Amino acid sequence: MTAIANAVAEQFGLTTRQLGPGFFAEIGGVDLSQHLSAATISEIREALNRHGVLLFRGQRLSEADQVRFSRQFGELMGHVLTQYLHPRHPEILVVSNIQENGRNIGLADAGHHWHADLTYLAEPSLGSLLYAREVPETGGDTLFADLAGAYDALPQEVKDRIESLQAVHLYLDTYERLRKENSQRPELTEEQWASLPDVLHPVVAIHPESGRRTLYVSEGFTSHIPGIPREESDELLSYLFAHSTSDAFLYRHRWEKGDLLFWDNRRTVHKAAGGYALPQRRLMHRTTIKGTRPTGP
Ligand code: SIN
After folding, report:
1. Protein residue whose Cα sits closest to atom 7 of ligand 1
2. Does the active-site annotation cover 141?
3. What is the tally of helices (H) and strands (E) in the chain?
């Protein structure tokens, strides 16, 4: 296939198959290792804005291919855990349970909680691309939830209540909790701590491309809503977390080697389901695209 598939796609457009409830689509007829025209890139971008998560099956990508394809959608971001960036391609975060010389080659427990990537930064991520290089026979799924669908389904009185609220997002609480659960997580250096101040984001964000309203909170990184009593903030956030990740807005992806998922961090949250252990190996490469500061209504 390769160049021929891309020539066909350019003539007839990409194929799209909806998989999740109101979001998550499989895109066919395109080989991401090849040069793609500006028209195809813009079609993929439109599909991302329409669906929120895109699945490209059966890809054969080198690290350089993944970086090149990802760059078509914006500047790439690193990660505070620099020790897990790919040694030759630092634009790639290695997510893996594989150990070499007694050390993890990647972040073994990445995303074991609901989150959108890097919302603890002032300018969080637009979207991430996760490419499956090795997958376990059982376990290792990733769950996705649609925050635009979840917002639309909220009762009007909740929409009114949260319309102009802001919430604090932070990395450190979650990091320390994960470190207690998994002693292999390294202690953060002073420099890493200092690079992660708390940030405020609107609870309801306007998607900068589709114009849709989304809930912009996640259990992993949203800590509290300042300006209201802590108990009230905890109660409201717990309600929003549970609502947004309830079955109606959920899709579970069972990975196959060669899958590349491209998700919109401005519209979805995700969670790694776990459920596998060595000698079952899982090796995923993530590239993360920079976004803009979220804005509310
Ligand atoms: C992530 O949160 O970026 C990783 C998700 C996964 O490994 O399934």
Report:
1. 272
2. no
3. 8, 18
| Total-model pTM | 0.94
CA distance 17 to 24: 9
Mean pLDDT for each 10-residue chunk of the chain (297 residues)?
56 82 92 94 96 98 98 95 94 97 90 94 97 97 98 98 97 80 77 86 98 97 96 98 97 98 98 94 98 97
Select from 77, 81, 115, 142 the residue to mutate for testing ligand 1; criterion: most ligand atoms less than 8 Å from CB: 142
Residue 124: which of 297, 296, 288 has the closest Cα?
Answer: 288
* Contacting residues for 258 by C-beta, under 8 A, at least 6 apart: 57, 58, 59, 60, 132
Could you list the beta-strand ranges (E) of 153-258.
166-169, 199-202, 204-206, 213-215, 222-224, 250-253
How far from 257 is each of 127, 145, 171, 254, 260, CA to CA, in Å? 21, 22, 30, 10, 9
Cα 292 to ligand 1 centroid, rounded to whole Å: 21
Give yes or no for residue 147 CB within 6 A of ligand 1.
no
- In which region does residue 73 sit, left (phi positive, over 0), alpha (psi from -120 to 50) or beta (all else)? alpha
106 lines ligand 1 (CB under 6 A): no
Whose Cα sits closest to atom 6 in ligand 1?
272
What is the Cα 297 distance to its own chain's centre?
Answer: 23
Peptide bond into 279 cis (omega under 30): yes
CB of residue 136 inside a 6 A radius of ligand 1:
no
pLDDT at 64: 98
List the structure tokens of 76. Answer: 């790439």
Neighbouring-strand partners of residue 16: 27
